[in-house]
Amino acid sequence: MNNVFGGRQRIVIYATMVPAIIIFILFGIVPALSTLVISFSDYLAIPGVPVHFVGFANYVSLFVDNLQGLQQSILDTLIFAAAVIIVQNLLGLWLAYS
Q1: pLDDT in tens, 20-46
Q2: Which of 2, 23, 25, 90, by CA, is between 20 and 30 Å from 16?
Q3: How far apart are CA 75 and CA 81, in angstroms?
Q4: pTM of the model
Q5: Residue 66: what pLDDT?
Q6: How many whole angstroms separate alpha carbon 88 and alpha carbon 82?
Q7: How do the residues of the chain divide into helix, strand and coil, expressed in percent and rounded to 5?
Q8: CA 42/CA 45 separation, integer angstroms
């Protein structure tokens, strides 16, 4: 099977993809990686306060020391998500039928 797109068309296709790829990297990949790196430190977001690597201590604290708080956070998130879904659907139906 022959190549469907010629050389010039291929350049145009890739050139139109580049902005979307850059935006995805800047707003998707970079924040995810920085969150992962920060999760292994004692980062306080206060200027001048040094950041120390603490390894898995944050995760041990989350899953062992504060398990009840984690369960409550998950429950709160599920309740909030259900409420938002119900309200959005009801508003959407109301707008569609009015």
Answers
A1: 999 999 999 999 999 999 999 998 888
A2: 2
A3: 10
A4: 0.64
A5: 84
A6: 10
A7: 75, 0, 25
A8: 9
